[in-house]
């Protein structure tokens, strides 16, 4: 029995949410101070803390720094984040001194749309006068994207609507878009460095470059990814298949991290 429980999870069929959370957690292997959003980022940082990076320092928008949550947070103001935290700052201090002061290594966010340069839309879908979908809004993303050292974005969809040639609305501009608007306003941070979708991992190694497909998930092809992306997405010279989650990764997500299926779907 024990031997079977340690086998790879290739035949356990992790859900899309579980797959995304595991891939995202692995991106945090060598990261220091992470400004974590809610949703899939919450799952990923918790999993990273239990597996690849026990020393990760978690920061939340509510002002909690050095969080050590004993359970899954239902939002940025959940008391589970405060209990045991190393400090709790006012939001003015967090954004004005910690984030804008250059003390955040990674912003870890979700988004509804991302364009080829790494600009994000978390505001609405459709025409701004009569939007078809209203989204949560900017939150802290408008400050996190330009000021964190880099940003990792997790998306639940990969289609021509979520990766459009042009955003329906730009909530968080990339350095490319900011520079185009005003060369004097180039942000200090790299902007979005990595986008993780249900199909692939896209990376943007150049601060003023565009996203490039570097990893494709098992069972999919380059043609699949290109067809689901609204722009002519660049493909790395050497594309690897995304490693599958381990049985232990999936077990932790299901049995210890999100036992009530708050974010797992």
Q: Could you walk me through the main structural features you see in this protein, from its secondary elements to its overall organization?
A:
With 265 residues, the chain is of the alpha/beta class. It has one domain: Glutaconate Coenzyme A-transferase (3-Layer(aba) Sandwich). The protein contains nine helices and 14 strands. The chain has helices at residues 2-5, 16-26, 40-50, 79-82, 91-99, 141-147, 175-181, 222-227, 247-257, and strands at 33-36, 57-59, 64-65, 87-88, 106-110, 113-114, 120-121, 124-125, 133-134, 150-154, 192-196, 200-203, 212-216, 234-241. The chain has an eight-stranded mixed β-sheet with strand order 2-1-5-10-11-12-13-14, with helices on both faces. The protein has a two-stranded antiparallel ribbon with strand order 3-4.
Write a brief structural summary.
The protein is of the alpha/beta class and 265 residues long. 26% of the residues lie in helices and 19% in strands.
């Amino acid at each position: 029995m024990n031997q079977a429980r340690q086998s790879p999870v290739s035949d356990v069929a992790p859900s899309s949410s579980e797959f995304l959370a595991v891939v995202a957690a692995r991106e945090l292997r060598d990261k220091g101070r992470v400004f974590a959003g809610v949703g899939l980022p919450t799952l990923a940082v918790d999993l990273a803390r239990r597996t690849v990076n026990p020393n990760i320092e978690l920061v939340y928008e509510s002002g909690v720094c050095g969080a050590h949550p004993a359970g899954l947070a239902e939002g940025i103001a959940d008391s589970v984040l405060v209990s045991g935290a190393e400090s709790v700052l006012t939001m003015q201090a967090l954004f004005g001194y910690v984030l804008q002061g250059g003390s955040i290594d990674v912003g870890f966010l979700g988004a509804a749309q991302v364009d080829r340069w790494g600009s994000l839309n978390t505001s609405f879908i459709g025409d701004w006068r009569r939007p078809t979908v209203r989204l949560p809004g900017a939150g802290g993303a408008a400050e996190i994207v330009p000021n964190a050292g880099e940003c990792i974005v997790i998306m639940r969809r990969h289609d021509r609507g979520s990766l459009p040639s042009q955003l329906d609305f730009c909530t968080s501009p990339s350095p490319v878009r900011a520079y185009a608007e005003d060369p004097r306003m180039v942000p200090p941070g790299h902007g979005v460095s990595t986008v993780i979708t249900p199909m692939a991992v896209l990376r943007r190694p150049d601060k003023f470059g565009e996203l490039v497909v570097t990893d494709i998930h098992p069972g999919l092809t380059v043609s699949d990814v290109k067809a689901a992306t609204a722009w002519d997405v660049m493909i790395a010279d050497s594309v690897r298949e995304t490693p599958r989650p381990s049985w232990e990764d999936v077990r932790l997500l299901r049995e210890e991290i999100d036992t009530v299926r708050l974010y797992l779907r």
